[in-house]
Amino acid sequence: MVGLKEELLKSIWHAFTALDLDRSGKVSKSQLKASGVLSHNLCTVLNVPHDPVALEEHFRDDDEGPVSNQGYMPYLNKFILEKVQGNFDKVEFNRMCWTLCAKKNLSKSPLLISDEDAFKVWVIFNFLSEDKYPLIIVPEEIEYLLKKLTEAMGAGWQQEQFDHYKIALNTSREGLSAWELIDLIGSGQFSKGMDRQTVSMAINEVFNELILDVLKQGYMLKKGHKRKNWTERWFVLKPNIISYYVSEDLKDKKGDIILDGNCCVEALPDKDGKKCLFLIKCLDKSFEISASDKKKKQEWIQAIQTTVNLLRAGSPPPHKEARQKRKELRQKLLAEQEELERQMKELQTANENKQKELETVRKQLEAAAARAAEEEKKRLQTQVELQDRFSLELEREKLVRQKMEEQVAQKSSELEQYLQRVRELEEMYKQLQEALEDEKQARQDEETVRKLQARLLEEESAKRAELEKWHLQQQQTIQMTEAEKQELENQRLIKEQALQVAMQQLEQLELERKEALEQYEEVKKKLETAANNTKSWKDKVAHHEGLIRLIEPGSKNPHLITNWGPAAFTEAELKQRQKSWKGKKATSE
């Protein structure tokens, strides 16, 4: 009943929109009468009892005028369509709706089809249109209808022509209205070369198949059940019944063959002078039919068997099933297209997000590059500053070094002057020998030690000369002939022994020299003690030059200078000796 209700609503929608309702769908007071007439006509053709009170109650008047909270369609659903049982003439119902809307909407320009053919095209449009309002027929269903009409006219289908038309249609809108479809077929654009009668017959054939559910029709001979005579009848095959009439005008119906899943059809051999026989078996009766030729016989057997198989499977008629499949396919394609669009939007959104991320990364890279360039600029500036600073430091260091060298030269000059003063002091110390007996004796001892050291050095030099002489003799001996080698080897051994003895003596002399140095140190100490005891001479020396002081020409490791050259002791030892001198001086005073 849901499918029937949708088919009825499409035809009623055309009639309803012809009432000139306002956009809100509400019925004004002046239109209430027209709505009542439409409702009465609908109830009449649909065999539904009409209730005018319900209509007036639904559109109740008040001080503001007619009131309709939901409009005419809810009333139609509740009080008319819900009561439809299916026992009505579809053609008569459609013709009533067509009468109400055709005059207003049908094109005034001349068409190649009659008004009756236009009515049939309008009904076919309601069958093939989409289940949404305002009603339109999509290009796929237009192509299906035009193919059916072309096939019924026996012409060839012009696919390329329709493709051009479809492209032009898709660029402007989704489909055609019923009146645009009538104009398209009535213009003869896809039926060129065909006369009006051929086009009309094709429209009638498609109308019978799609609207009246006529699966097949034609003249055949039927054998009677009582008199057993053969009579020509016009047979009409529908999804659950075969009706036969006196003629094709369908005015005088002679009977029906009720089909169900238990029926079957089978071919019969020729008999009684009749050819192309087949038998239709039902539960209560069997019918013998004779077709005009073998082709018609086979077509009828196949059509009836297909109808019985559909009844067994509970499937709708082929054209309705095909329409449902096309609709499901469009819905599937639409869903896939929507899904594809959704995915494309998601991809576009993801792409935009990626573009934004890339733009952000690009900006970050640009910022990083700018920061790096700034840092590089700062680094180069810092490097230049460091180079300038280093150059300044280097120049300063050169100046400092030059100043240090000047100071070293000055210190060297001062050292020379100091050495000159030391020599003068030595002369002064010599003059003090007569006044200082202890110092004189110490100097004599020192002289003795010096002589001893000199003697030892002379002996060491003599030994070294003797060793060199022996070495020269040894070299001369090596150059002797082979006959003298043995004797020379013996002499060499003797001389090596003598050399070893000389080396031992040299080591002994070295030890004696060290002892002499130790004695020299003791004498020096005595000399220092004697120097401390000469206070008057010390004052004179201090007045003349000052105390013996350390000379530091700039080196980090200062060298101490004595009367006899560089000191053999450290600064700490000097301080210790100074402390000792001061102690002895205090004791002597």
UniProtKB/TrEMBL annotation:
- Highest rank taxon of the organism: Eukaryota
Residue ranges annotated as coiled coil are: 319-540
> Signal peptide location in the record?
none
GO CC annotations, alphabetized: cytoplasm; lamellipodium; nucleus; plasma membrane
List locations, semicolon-separated: Cell membrane; Cell projection, Lamellipodium; Cytoplasm; Nucleus
Instruction: Enumerate the GO terms in the molecular function aspect.
Output: DNA binding
UniProt keyword list: Cell membrane, Cell projection, Coiled coil, Cytoplasm, DNA-binding, Membrane, Nucleus, Phosphoprotein
User: What InterPro entries has UniProt attached to this entry?
Assistant: EF-hand-dom_pair (IPR011992), EF-hand_SWAP70_N (IPR057836), PH-like_dom_sf (IPR011993), PH_domain (IPR001849), PH_SWAP70 (IPR057837)
Main localization category: membrane
**CDD domains (alphabetical):** PH_SWAP-70
The protein's matches in Pfam families, at most eight in alphabetical order, are given as: EF-hand_SWAP70_N, PH
Write out the transmembrane intervals: none
- List, for all copies, the residue spans of the domain called PH: 213-309
Question: What does the subunit section of this Swiss-Prot or TrEMBL entry state?
Answer: The SWAP complex consists of NPM1, NCL, PARP1 and SWAP70.
What does this protein do, in the record's words?
Phosphatidylinositol 3,4,5-trisphosphate-dependent guanine nucleotide exchange factor (GEF) which, independently of RAS, transduces signals from tyrosine kinase receptors to RAC. It also mediates signaling of membrane ruffling. Regulates the actin cytoskeleton as an effector or adapter protein in response to agonist stimulated phosphatidylinositol (3,4)-bisphosphate production and cell protrusion.
**Protein name (database record):** Switch-associated protein 70
Protein source organism: Heliornis fulica
Q: Which gene encodes it?
A: Swap70
